[in-house]
């Protein structure tokens, strides 16, 4: 039998090109989702979510399970990397001098404020630092306008940016975290169509969150499914945990507006990897143990640092990595994640990890099977 040529035909090349080109088109990341499947509240018990298990290569069919059964699907002795950032009550509601209502969402992580904060000389016990935030009001807000939020926090608008972003001088009295906790609101995402409630203080926070890592404006939602008991059980079974920090900011929820997604510019987010975590990851890889990212924030941290530094190592700094189909992954072998919004950078990330068509097919089945979507919704494990 003559040896067949490996040279691709014109038709094959054209199909491959069209498929690749489709991967870069914003409209290719749309899917139909009934509003009734957008979770407005977390499940009654933490960890009671459903779990859709997906093979990254498409070799095996989708499997339906519950998050409490995650152990059945994890590779033995895997290293699970979690984001230990803490959600700040970063949404403030106030009144302008004109009497109009105003809302401010702090985007700068509190630990970074602390590095530049200085006392306000004429007001004892007050501090100030330049910060970034989202400001929303009924009318135009001029540079130089001052707005008070109660008796512990105030801002002065320094520069107006695009899409509601502002550089402000932030003023606060006493401890900044305590000031925000006293008057701020849990920054629930806009698709949760209700105001924050007392229960959100606990449920929109992962068990991995550390007080000293306070400053995220959204939860690393994949971590919301874990309970302390589940973590203890996983450790007892030989699994290992490591922590990174990504202060979830504007980059996570900023919409992609470019029709060619390659033109989208991610907003930078501050990340940290400790020596201990870097050593744990390097050791796991050397021993052939899979590295599983718990959430897209953990994945962005690991792959962002590896891309910037050429390797995984201790790191503190900014990343604006944008992962879409065609990207390579040098650190992460598996991903635990929630379901993401249509046309979002996070949907593009998971499409880069497992293939856009496979992801959209999995989402279609999840919709058909009644899964709950987004922050308070159900989970996926992409292995």
| Largest sheet: number of strands, sense, barrel closure | 9 strands, mixed
CATH fold annotation of the largest domain: QueA-like
Query: What would you call the shape?
Result: globular
Which spans of ≥5 residues are poorly predicted at pLDDT below 50? Answer: 1-7, 9-18
- How are strands sequenced across the largest beta sheet? 2-1-18-17-15-3-13-14-16
CATH architectural category of the largest domain = 3-Layer(aba) Sandwich
List the helices and strands and how they pair.
Elements lengths: L9 H14 L26 E5 L8 E4 L12 E5 L2 E2 L3 E5 L5 E6 L3 H7 L1 E2 L6 E12 L8 E4 L3 E8 L4 E9 L2 H8 L16 H4 L10 E3 L11 H9 L3 E7 L3 H4 L15 E5 L1 H12 L4 E4 L1 H14 L5 E5 L14 E5 L6 H10 L1 H13 L10 E4 L1
Parallel strand pairs: 1-18, 3-13, 3-15, 4-12, 15-17
Antiparallel strand pairs: 1-2, 5-6, 6-8, 7-8, 8-11, 9-10, 10-11, 13-14, 14-16, 17-18
Helix pairs in contact: 9-10
Salient structural properties:
single chain, 383 residues, alpha/beta, QueA-like, Thrombin, subunit H, nine-stranded mixed beta sheet, seven-stranded antiparallel beta sheet, 25% strand, globular, disordered N terminus
């Amino acid at each position: 039998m003559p040896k067949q040529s490996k040279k691709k035909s014109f038709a094959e090349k054209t199909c491959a090109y069209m498929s690749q080109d489709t991967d870069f088109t914003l409209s290719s990341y749309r899917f139909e989702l009934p509003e009734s499947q957008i979770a407005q509240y977390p499940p009654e018990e933490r960890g009671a979510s459903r779990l859709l298990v997906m093979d990254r290569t498409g070799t095996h069919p989708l499997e339906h399970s519950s998050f409490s059964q995650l152990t059945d699907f994890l590779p033995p002795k895997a290293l699970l990397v979690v984001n230990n950032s803490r959600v700040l009550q970063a949404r403030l509601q106030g009144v302008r001098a004109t009497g109009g209502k105003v809302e401010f969402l702090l985007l700068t992580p509190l630990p970074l404020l602390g590095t530049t904060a200085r006392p306000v000389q004429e007001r004892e016990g007050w501090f100030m630092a330049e910060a970034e935030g989202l400001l929303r009001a009924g009318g135009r807000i001029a540079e130089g306008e001052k707005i008070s939020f109660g008796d512990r926090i105030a801002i002065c608008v320094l520069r107006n940016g695009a899409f509601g972003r502002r550089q402000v001088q932030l003023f606060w009295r006493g401890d900044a975290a305590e000031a925000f906790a006293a008057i701020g609101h849990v920054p629930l995402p806009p698709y949760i169509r209700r105001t924050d409630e007392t229960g959100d203080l606990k449920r929109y926070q992962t068990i991995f969150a550390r007080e000293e890592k306070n400053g995220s404006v959204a939860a690393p939602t994949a971590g919301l499914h874990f309970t302390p008991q589940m973590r203890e059980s996983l450790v007892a079974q030989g699994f290992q945990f490591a922590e990174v920090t990504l202060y979830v900011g504007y980059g996570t929820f900023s919409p992609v507006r470019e029709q060619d997604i390659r033109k989208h510019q991610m907003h930078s987010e501050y990340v940290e990897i400790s020596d201990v975590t870097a050593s744990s990851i390097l050791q796991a890889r050397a021993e052939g143990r899979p590295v599983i990212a718990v959430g897209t924030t953990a994945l962005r941290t690991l792959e962002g640092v590896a891309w910037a530094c050429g390797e995984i190592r201790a790191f503190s700094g900014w990343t604006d990595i944008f992962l879409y189909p065609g990207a390579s992954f040098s650190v992460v072998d598996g991903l635990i994640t929630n379901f993401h919004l249509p046309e979002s950078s996070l949907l593009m990330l998971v499409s880069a990890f497992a293939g856009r068509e496979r992801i959209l097919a999995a989402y279609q089945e999840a919709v058909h099977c009644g899964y709950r979507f987004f922050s308070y919704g159900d989970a996926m494990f992409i292995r």
